[in-house]
Amino acid sequence: MTSPQDDRMAKPVCFQDVILRLQTYWAAQGCAVLQPYDMEVGAGTFHPATTLRSLGARPWAAAYVQPSRRPTDGRYGENPNRLQHYYQYQVIIKPSPPNLQELYLGSLKAIGLDPMIHDVRFVEDDWESPTLGAWGLGWEVWCDGMEVSQFTYFQQVGGHDCKPVSGELTYGLERLAMYVLGIEHVMDMPFNAPDSPIPLSYGDIFRQSEREYSRWNFDQADTKMLFDHFRDAEAECTRILTAAEADGAGRRIPMAHPAYDQCIKASHLFNLLDARGVISVTERQAYIGRVRALAKACADLFVTTDAARADEVAA
Amino acid sequence: MPDLLIELFSEEIPARMQARAREDLKKRITDGLVEAGLTYASAGAFSTPRRLTLTVQGLSAESPTTHEERKGPRTDAPEKALEGFLRGAGLTKDQLEVRDDKKGQVWFATITRPGRPAADIVAGVLDATIRNFPWPKSMRWGAGSLRWVRPLHSIICLLSDESGAQVVPLEIEGIRAGDTTRGHRFMAPDAFTVTGFDDYAAKLRRARVMLDSAEREAAIRQEAANLAFARGWDIVPDDGLLSEVAGLVEWPVPLMGAIEDRFLTLPPEVLQTSMKEHQKFFSARNPKTGRIEGFVTVANIETPDDGATILAGNQRVLAARLSDAAFFFENDLREAKAGMKAWAEGLKSVTFHNKLGSQADRIARIAALAREIAPLVDADRDQAEEAARLAKLDLRSAMVGEFPELQGIMGRYYALEAGKAPAIADAARDHYSPLGPSDEVPTAPVSVAVALADKIDTLTGFWAIDEKPTGSKDPFALRRAALGVIRLVLGNNCKLSLEKMMMKPVAAHVVGQAVRENAALKYAQLIPHADDLGVRVAALNLEAEALKIAIAQIESAHDDGNLSDRSVSLASDLLTFLHDRLKVHLRDQGIRHDIIDAVLAQPGNDDLVQVVNRATALNDMLQTEDGRNLTQGLKRAGNILAQAEEKDGVEYSFGADEKFAETDQERALFKALDTAEPAIRKAMAQEDFPAAMQAIAALRTPIDAFFEAVQVNTDNQILRRNRLNLLSRIREAGRQIADFTRIEG
């Protein structure tokens, strides 16, 4: 029988192995292991567990996998690294603990990257999301010359100063797992254990859908409809945010989360329109500005809610 | 005399910020210490990715006690005045003394500031330095409010002398200064204590940290060269990369690898850029093949497998990157071979500047201009125009999309692939030059034509939309473009009239601007429905239509010679800007600004080659005694004339006759002018400025003698007029060459 120590150091054998180890590791560090947000987003940061929860004074610690969609990155499943649908692993801890770098390095060990035989480096990379009105300072983490994670100390989200500061870790799961597993083409990567009764590769699961979505994203999506949806989401977001805070029974229930859903929708619709090539360079900025305005308004409302307020911490 | 050791230990400091941070730390701390009255013998600052370190040696143990005398109000001044004085001095009335002053009795205070121990001063100075450190970007972390470049973890602040080391008591936001630090993140992560700088540096080395970035750089350079030598290769030197890499490691371990054969067909610039930008690899060249065939990566760790895992990982990442590059390059070559029409088409939708149209609009303008410039620089018109049309197409290529710094370089490869003449392909690579004051100036005629056209289009365009540089702001690098024009013209000896050359593009921009504004107005009216695709397309067509009209208007305006006043004044304003840049350029070459001014005041000042030749010849002449005295004589003649002309209300410009000459000196001057005038005219016509200077310098002796012997303003009006007219010949002779009134001294 192998000891748990040996288990941890043994190399993962498949994609889900990498994910499961990260889940186990971050659960052991005390993070709430959340499930993916049930909407289309461009990155794990859009999950309200990061965007909204990095606001306000309440301590927070969460980890989750987030399926992410970047329509312009579609390559019909042919490119070894690029996908229009992929997975990010996201960790967010507020306030950022003093040993966050060590915790992070521990997670690399957990997936089989021993920093004593690899070259792990923290290389300057400042993060900014114009759509979320957010920025932070940190690094991209290099392992043997490959970027394996993004490590950021949030300074501002939705135009609000982050106080306290959240530490955010983002792992590009496919790329990281391919490196750990020694796979050249993402579609060749074993998803479950290769010795399973029914072994499935990443390609078995996603090759077909990557092709289909690439076609739809680039050529087929109905742009008129997408423009309409964008406007609808924008209008609904604004309406929710400006609705009276008290409900029919006089309870104060501001609706930051439903409004933020509409903001996420608008953002994704913009990405689709961008992939369809119907947004010119100058218009791009205007659309990004419109989504940012929504994100900021959602943040403004969220910080007034119990989920954000510091006095709730003391209670 | 104690020594001071400071270490600020943090998470990884961006490599590009470390050099500046070392200097700032040293300056702020030593300045603060000196300001507080301490002295020191020497100081040195160091950095690694995780620490900023300062050592100050021979620091005084305490600051001296000082006495300051302050004069207060008179003894009979109101009580309020005295109270204010006491508050300011921090004293009570019984500590003051009364002294006699010119105006009566006055209060005097003597403020004594006792010396402070070095530790107190160091604590205060370090606290202020940390809180106000000028990082280009700083951040907060956790729940604190302290700002640093990345989270700050520990501080060493240690004063040490023969009797031992003492930690300076200091606490900032929960970080208490101490005497401990840590070694290499992975190889020696444990904390250890130190007793002073020497002990600190020695223990760090044992803990696998090379403190001095210069030492790390030297170690990398040396080891990389050794690794390359073993394979018969050379490292391509890159100081910027070296200093960056030295800022990414505490313990440099260079490792060498070979590039897979399948990538060796990629252009060397692509290999080098990809390896440098993405991986921070040094390139290794095989001198036998001239190709880049290997790389050196610098790891931050010694491993049990001697870096085998690290090197294999880096090889894999490089292979993935280069596969991408090869894929881009092959696709790009295919498009190049097919004529690059898709790229030209694509540039129509890339905005250059929203008031100056798309990149395609810009290319069309540059092509037209290059065609006009071509004959002036001995280039073939058709070649220049074609080169201009091709030069920027690579902006749409996948490779330049990935590596913007390869613009032009890729353009050359693609033009060659498309079967274009080498002169045309070279223009794609060279037309951006010169980029800086030390960048080489293109000399091939087609490249010169396109480079000039590119820069003149930029200058005239931004002038027409009123986006000139102001103060330190020059977002469109127009000063650089202007210097580029100057260096291209001078470096290639291009005889051309810049003002004339700029007039048409300026006019084109002015008209284009008006039309575009008009179109924008119409477009704006459609905006409420702009999301409707159909309307957007209609609006875009409308703009295209408007541009066609604009071009027609420009053509006709040019044909009529009917350029608007605005165009004329913009072109002349732009010429003044170019003249200002020329002055800066020539000043750097040792030619005084007044000499340039004297030449620029002459007609033909938009022919920069002529301006510089004149200024150089004038400068040379003014180095001689004859030249300096001649200038005085010319000025004197000019002043006498100006006064007389103002008094008499006429211009003396004609009619001096030798028969009215009374003295030998007058007659000698007539003779000298008779010789000099045609010589100057001839030399000037041939633009032989040294000869012209020589001819006019010959007037020095007769002019001096004339002023010595002859009174110009005599009572005899005939003689006076004659002499004034004679002086006007001197003035005229000078004016042929320069405006001598502007010469200083």
Q: Termini separation of chain A (Å)?
A: 47 Å
Biggest sheet statistics of chain A? 9 strands, mixed
CATH class of the largest domain in chain A: Alpha Beta
Compressed to H and E, one letter per element, the order of chain A equals: HHEHEEHEEEEEEHHHHHH
- Supply the CATH architecture of the largest domain in chain A: 2-Layer Sandwich
Strand content of chain B: 5-15%
Helix content of chain B: 40-55%
Number of strands of chain A: 9
Main location (chain B): cytoplasm
EC number (chain B): 6.1.1.14
InterPro entries (chain B): DALR_anticod-bd, Gly-tRNA-synth_bsu, Gly-tRNA-synth_heterodimer
Family (chain B): Belongs to the class-II aminoacyl-tRNA synthetase family.
How is this structure best described in words?
Chain B: Residues 58-79 are annotated as: Disordered. Chain B: Pfam families: DALR_1 (PF05746), tRNA_synt_2f (PF02092). Chain B: GO terms for molecular function: arginine-tRNA ligase activity; ATP binding; glycine-tRNA ligase activity. Chain B: Residues 65-79 have a biased composition (Basic and acidic residues). Chain B: Keywords: Aminoacyl-tRNA synthetase, ATP-binding, Cytoplasm, Ligase, Nucleotide-binding, Protein biosynthesis. The complex is a heterodimer of chains A (315) and B (745). Chain A has 315 residues and is an alpha+beta fold. Chain A has two domains: 4-214, BirA Bifunctional Protein, domain 2; 222-314, Up-down Bundle (Methane Monooxygenase Hydroxylase, Chain G, domain 1), CATH 1.20.58.180. Chain A contains ten helices and nine strands. In chain A, strands 1, 2, 3, 4, 5, 6, 7, 8 and 9 form a nine-stranded mixed beta sheet that branches. In chain A, helix 7 packs parallel to helix 9. The radius of gyration of chain A is 20 Å and the shape is globular. Chain B has 745 residues and is α+β, with helices and mostly antiparallel strands. Chain B has five domains: 3-62 and 117-206, no CATH class; 66-113, no CATH class; 213-337, no CATH class; 341-575, no CATH class; 608-742, Isoleucyl-tRNA Synthetase, Domain 1 (Orthogonal Bundle). Chain B contains 26 helices and 18 strands. In chain B, strands 2-3-1-7-8 form a five-stranded antiparallel beta sheet, covered by helices on one side. Chain B has a four-stranded antiparallel beta sheet with strand order 13-15-16-14, sandwiched between helices. In chain B, strands 4-6-5 form a three-stranded antiparallel beta sheet, with helices on one face. In chain B, helix 13 (409-417) packs antiparallel against helix 14 (422-430). Mean pLDDT of chain B is 88; it is low at 526-542. At the A-B interface, strand 4, strand 6, strand 7 and helix 7 of A face helix 8 of B.
